[in-house]
C-alpha cells in the first residue's frame, strides 16, 4: 500500500468514513449480542489486571519515568505514551506490567541481569 502525504486541511476536507447515525442507534442489547458473538461473556466481572496502568506500577516502585523506561529497556517515549493512554502496551508489555505488579523484585532483578 502506498503512503500518501496530505496536509491537515486536505484530511479535514475529506468526508468522514464513520456512520455516526449507526453508532448512535447501537443499543445495549446490540453491544451484548456483539460480545457474545465475539466469544466474550458480557456478565463476567471486569479483569482489572487487563487494565493495569504502567503509571501505577511505576509509582508503586518509586521510580521516575526515565528510571522505569531504562529498567524495562524501552524508549522513554513509549512509556509516556502508555501512561498517557496514547497507545496501549502490546501483549508482552501488558504481561510485563502484571509481572512487575505481582513480583517486582524478581522482575527487576531478571531485567538487570539481561542488560
From TrEMBL:
PROSITE patterns: HTH_CROC1
Gene3D superfamilies to which the protein is assigned, alphabetical: lambda repressor-like DNA-binding domains (1.10.260.40)
Coiled-coil parts of chain: none
Occurrences of domain HTH cro/C1-type (ranges): 55-90
Any one GO molecular-function label of the UniProt entry: DNA binding
A Pfam family per the record: HTH_3
InterPro entries: Cro/C1-type_HTH, Lambda_DNA-bd_dom_sf
Name assigned to this protein: Transcriptional regulator, XRE family
Native source species: Tistrella mobilis (strain KA081020-065)
Keywords, sorted A to Z: Plasmid
Superkingdom as given in the UniProt entry: Bacteria
Organism classification: Bacteria, Pseudomonadati, Pseudomonadota, Alphaproteobacteria, Geminicoccales
Amino acid at each position: 500500500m502506498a503512503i500518501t502525504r496530505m496536509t491537515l486541511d486536505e484530511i479535514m476536507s475529506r468526508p468522514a468514513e464513520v456512520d455516526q447515525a449507526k453508532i448512535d442507534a447501537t443499543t445495549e442489547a446490540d453491544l451484548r449480542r456483539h460480545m457474545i458473538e465475539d466469544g466474550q461473556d458480557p456478565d463476567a466481572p471486569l479483569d482489572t489486571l487487563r487494565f493495569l496502568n504502567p503509571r501505577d506500577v511505576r509509582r508503586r516502585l518509586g521510580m521516575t519515568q526515565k528510571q522505569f523506561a531504562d529498567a524495562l529497556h524501552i524508549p522513554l517515549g513509549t512509556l509516556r505514551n502508555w501512561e498517557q493512554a496514547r497507545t496501549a502496551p502490546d501483549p508482552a508489555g501488558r504481561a510485563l506490567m502484571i509481572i512487575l505488579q505481582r513480583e517486582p523484585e524478581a522482575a527487576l532483578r531478571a531485567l538487570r541481569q539481561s542488560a
